[in-house]
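Predict the assembly for these two chains.
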Amino acid sequence: MESSVNAYALIVEKLTQDFGVDAEAIHPGATLSELGIDSLSAVEFIFELEDELGVELDPEEAEFETLQEAADLLEQRVEEKGG
Amino acid sequence: MAHSDGPRRVFITGMGVVGPHGLGADRTFEAVLEGRSAVTLSETGSDEVAAEVLVARSPFEAAEHFARSERMFMARAAAMAVVAAEEALDQAGLDPQDPEAEELRDAGTWMGCGLGGAEALEDGFQRYYQRRTRRAPPSTVPLIMANGPAAHLSMRWGLQGPSLSYSMACASSAASLGEAFRALRAGSVHRALAGGAEAMLTGGILAAWEALGVVARTHPDGPEVSCRPFDAARTGMVLGEGAAVFVLETEEAMADRGAEPLAQLLGYGTASDAHGLTEPHARGQVEAMREALADAGVAPDEVGYVNAHATGTHTGDRVETASLRQVFGEAVGAIPVSATKAVHGHLVGAAGALELLLTVQALRHRRIPPTAHLTEPDEEALDLDLVPDPGRDAPGLGIALSNSFAFGGSNAALVVGRV
């Protein structure tokens, strides 16, 4: 699916710039906990991504394991919103 | 660790401050000695509700000390507390860069804080009431909570003893230090980080303080001389912000690692006015001071300096004057009393800790800081020695008292001695 946003790039940027994650540790299959993001930081991370993309993930649907899955979910919401 | 029976002696081995005069206990004491005021007239609020308010703002920038990932969950007050604690640990000979120092494993954390993360509280209100959204950052609650400063100190250095927070407005950190002192003396803990932090100079909160009618008006000679405790021309208090943190140790804990004391904590007293929310009453203040002196085993005439609570309000300074007269009797005029809030403002939850730090500095340097801007003393305080500018040398100074009296009627007094 072609999206108007590149959510994965945004995720990488946020992890490295705001959450202090080493860029070399990041890959599409990585999970937040593997990258040292605790549960509180994880919810803040999602909140900030939602804010920047102008979408909201329904908590019941917002289940993802990997960064790629999170990116896909976010892009799907942006598409649905007409972004 | 070998301990004698009975109460332990408790010493201060390190102290640090982030406040209106910047970072550092020495720099802060130097500024206070010089009567250099940190009070400014500051623009606050948004375009619609802009106002100029007298404040003693700290130049502290959290971004210079912490990455965004750390600041995300660290309110300004907590960030100030961590930096103040770094200085205190360093001075105590404990490595602030070591997150797993064995000496701190069983240590406790006692911190005072009146409000917590004021900026997150105000941001939350703005989102909800102004932007009309129920979406709040998940960091909001951990930022607002008043035990944030204590939690951050405990987490950062792995202190697994008690982590306790005291919220009694202006007496919060005098109480946190006093309660830590009691725990160490009783032997339940041997080492502690204790102090206070406060950062609430946000537009909405300043407006609320102004509504109480206790904030000073700008003096004709300039904003910097507007906070005038004990002066006949005083018009009120000036809010400040900052954190001051101490390393406290029992004599045995100190000896175990060969540390040197800066001063000895000798006594603590606390009592309530049981009178009014914002109107002080001498009975609670007198009881707190007498209890602290009795606790220290010190007679009133042995006290060589009093750092008064003295915020610069008309009523507050008069009631404290009356309290001092009751505690020290006819000898009250022989004891130097100064009000350093004239230059650093009122740090509320950090006030008692900052003022104890200045009191310890006075003992160490044998020099009493002045009551700055005092030109014409209040007619009811004429019998007090209010130490006008530029302060004075006190070569024989051995024991000092620091007062903290709060809204809500909570009072705390600390007695500290030279080593």
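The domain at 7-80 of chain A is CATH 1.10.1200.10 (Non-ribosomal Peptide Synthetase Peptidyl Carrier Protein; Chain A). The mean pLDDT of chain A is 91.
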